[in-house]
Amino acid sequence: MNGTNKSTRNWIIAGAIAVIAIVAVLGLFYPRPQGGQVAGTIGGVQKAERYRSEQLTDKDVLLNHPEVQALLQNDQIQKLINSKEFQALMSNKAYVALLSNKAYVDLLSNKAYVDLMSNKAYVDLISNKAYVDLMSNKAYVDLISNKAYHAALDSGTWQQALASQAFYRALAGGAFNRDAVTQK
Fold it and tell me: Longest Cα pair distance anywhere in the chain, in angstroms?
């Protein structure tokens, strides 16, 4: 992998980590309105109180939270936030919609997912050209989205085959490839 691709991959990983951190901090510490506090929200239609003015307090501003301060004072985070790539990503409507997707936010806050994304072997795998080529191969994408394929993976027969030494010998010997060619 050349230096440019590695640098781009590092920026993407750093961006993903920053987004995860920001979403996690906001998800954990951002106050949600209670039943009677919905004035001004889409669901809480009430008479406008136009001339009422309240001063913001430290409780209203989450930037004083130690984790947010540490995050915002990190040089790498500042470089990331100010980079053209990050700015382009954050202005991408599809990405912004993804960030507001509950399932995606739940995934980002899942400990197992966070552990996976920080695992060096996994990072090496997803940056491997052969893996990237496989994931963009239409035939492979069609296969992994096929319901019959998932049913076969979930079957006990497939699990037994995976446990069989004969299965691995057949794979190593190329028997599957020869049989696939002769059946055409």
Answer: 82
Q: Six-digit token pair at 155?
A: 């079957």
Its sign, for the CA torsion 80, 83, 105, 71, is positive
The dihedral built from the CA positions of residue 27, 96, 111 and 85, taken in this order, carries a sign that is negative
- Are 134 and 140 spatial neighbours (Cβ–Cβ below 8 Å)? yes
Q: Which among 76, 79, 77 has a CA at the least distance from the CA of 25?
A: 77
Count the Cβ atoms, other than its own, within 10 Å of residue 108.
19
pLDDT in tens, 61-116: 566 667 777 777 888 888 888 889 988 888 888 888 888 888 888 888 889 988 88
Cβ–Cβ under 8 Å, residues 44 and 38: yes
Instruction: Mention every residue, 6+ apart, whose C-beta is less than 8 A from residue 21.
Output: 71
Query: Contact 83/89 with Cβ under 8 angstroms?
Result: no
45 phi and psi angles, rounded to 5 deg: -85, 120
The pair of three-digit structure tokens given for residue 43, joined into one six-digit string: 């669901």
Residue with tokens 């989205």: 145
The model's pTM: 0.37
Of residues 57, 77, 92, the one with CA closest to residue 15: 77
* pLDDT tens track for 111-159: 998 888 888 998 888 888 998 888 888 988 888 888 888 888 888 887 7
